[in-house]
Amino acid sequence: MMLQSIAFYAFAGVLVGSAVLVIAARNPVHSVLFLVLAFISAAGLFVLLGAEFLAMILVIVYVGAVAVLFLFVVMMLDINFVRLRQRSMRVLSVGAIVGLVLMVELVLVIGTLIAAPDAGAPTAPAVAGVTNTVALGDLLYTRYIYLFQASGLVLLVGMIGAIVLTHRKRVGVRKQSIAAQVGRKRSEAVELKKVTPGSGV
After folding, report:
1. Chain-wide mean pLDDT for the chain?
2. Using CA atoms, how far apart are residues 50 and 69, in angstroms rounded to an integer?
């Protein structure tokens, strides 16, 4: 029991510290690396809770795919992070209001759980012969199906926001126009040249 407590506080401390450094780090590459460390620490907490399936999904999907994709995007795109941070400082008040609302909601949820711990408790399936994966899928796709779909919409909004933030016009870069290519006439694309025999190229 003592070893589990030490492991919990170690993983939790690393998780909180790396989450703060994701936001505080000046170098975006370092932020992504701290994000990977936060994911691994959260996976360790899941293992301590006995949810090894969630731990493996967190490591395989988020560390192996999402965080690596973030790292590649940050390293390959020519993003002016100074200007991006300046623009984000303008909407700091809106972010503070949203954060305050989320904090109030968390306080209400935690207060409700402390006042009535058995209120709204999900009915767990029979333990005999049921693995963590089966129990998780049964609960996720029956009781919490609408919340699961809502989380997919949140990820979609985040993806669209990332595209909008990184998509900008640069001077001197030619961009493909499908409408102009499809709508051009034959006279604009084909030019006939009269070659005199014996004159060469």
Report:
1. 79
2. 29
